[in-house]
Each structure stands twice: as C-alpha cells, then as structure tokens.
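As the next step, I selected for study one protein, both as residues and as discrete backbone shape codes, as given directly below:
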Amino acid sequence: MKSRNWYVKQLKRKPVQITRYVVQAVFLLFLLYVGLRFYLFYMHFETLGETTFVERPAAVEGFLPLGSLVALKVWLLEGDFDPIHPAGLVLLAFFIGSGFILRKSFCSWICPVGTANELTGWLGRKIFKRNFEIPQWLVWFLTPIKYVLLLVFIGMVIQMPIFSAKAFLTDQYNKVSDVKMLLLFINIGGITLKAIIIIFVLSLFFRNFWCRFLCPYGALIGLGSIFRITKIQRNEDTCTNCEMCTKVCPQRVQVHKVETVLTPNCTACMSCVEACPIKDTLNMTVANKKVNKWFVPVTFFVLFFVIIGIAKLTGHWETIISYEEWKKLLPDARYIGH
C-alpha cells in the first residue's frame, strides 16, 4: 500500500489530473443516483401507484442526444424551445458550444461513458501491465467511423422537414423516449449486449477505444476545435523529446511530434501539460495567448453551472408533461412506437 507522502507528492505534481479523477467519480456517482431516481419514478407509474412517487430528474434528458438534436434544429430555425425535454436541449447546446472554446472538456471531465472507458483502460493496464498500441494504418482506417455515424445522425435530422421535426417533439414516442432508453438497459440483451461486451474487451486492450473511434457525440463536440481557438502548444526549443506527453494522453495523440495540437480528438484534459518535466514547454493557449492550466476546466464548470442555473430560473429545465399525462403514458410505454 502506498504511503501518505506518495499521495501528497502526486497531488502536488499533477493537481489537475487528481481533480479530474475526483470530478469524474463524483459525476459518475451522481448519474447513477439520477438513474436510480428515474427508475423509481418509472416504477411508480408501472405499478399503477403502488410504489412511492419520486420526482423525475431532468438530468436524465442528457442521455437523449438524437431527440435533442431535433429540438436544436427546431429552436435554431423556428425559435421554439422544446418544452418536452428542455434539459436535453440545454445540455446538448452547451456541450456543442463549449467545444469551440473549451474543446472536448465534457468528454474528459463529466461524460459517464468516457469515464467508464478510462476505467476500462486502467483495468486493462492492471491485468496486462500495459495498454496496447493500434498500428497507425489501422488508426487511419478506424478514425472516420465516428464521423460517418455522426453524418448519418445529422443527415437524418437535416432532411427531416421542420413540420415533421415539430411533430416528432410532441409525439408520444418522444415523450417516453427516456423511459424507452431505461427499458433498453433494464432488458438488455441481443445485439446491444454483444456490442457493449465487444467495446469493453477492445477498451481493455486499446485505451479509450470507444471515445477515439466510435463516439459520434464526442465527434460532434470536437468539431468546434477546427477553429483552433484553444490548443496545446509545444516549445520545440526546450522540448527534450522524452515523450511523456504522448505516453499519458488518453486519446493517444502524438503530442511530442507536433508543435501545436490541432486534432479534434484532444479533450483538453491537461494530462500532457502536467506530465511535461520542462516548465513552459507545453502550454494551453486561448487565441494564441498562454493561459493557466486550470483555465479550461474552471471556465467549463463555471459556464456549465451558470447555464443550468439560468435554464432553471427561466423555466427551460423541467418538462411540461404533467403527472396525469405520465399516468396515461408510462404504463404502456414499452408498447409505444414511432
């Protein structure tokens, strides 16, 4: 067992990463709590009131990206804010917007799937003593997959006529889409279970396999980084080519080979910056100006909580679906189709 001094040294050496791990754990536990409350909410109606009523947690709408993408289209084109799953729209819009200035901070700090993927990679290192590297030619082959998936989803939303998009948002299927998602995981099996097992096994061997090659949500958020407002810059004059930056990068970005990290895969986790042994060799920059290593995560969370606070104060967080309507919808939710 490691000594207390070892943990103190680690905290002093990489405070951002230690904080990130703690925040990831807190958000993962919070989302598990949200899931439990949502399950209890659903069971109240499924049992026709035999179990205690629990308020539906609006945060569950963060797991409805496709419906939120349709709502975003309606909001941008018509100015109508989705009253059915407003929290989902708030979260999606913020995460996409944050990608322009704060890169994929969502992915490295609070995404539960990203956290699970990192934990799986850690477990792989414990079992095999290391994670394995994917050949570069295969990386080039796999990388487009998440963008193809993203194009499919965006294409579906774009080609949907605006009247159809509005009808979808008020359709019974969309109203119970969060319950549909819950039932999918409660009764998981078949293709879904096989896919999860395959991704889990791949992530044991290859660090962050899902995030790097398959996640369309992360791909969407990462598009904001093409404007290059925020980026990691490497001072080639002081760099010793120790490759510590590349070794610690969760996304396996070859940081030691570039002067500026421009790839949309960068999640601004600051692992490379803290791992660099030479002061001011790796720095986060915003509009080409060096910023403190805490700037991106602190800004992300300040804006995150401010946006949620504003949404709650202005009535853009809780659904307008009433208890009586839930009472009619949820007992038959599993049979509602689109």
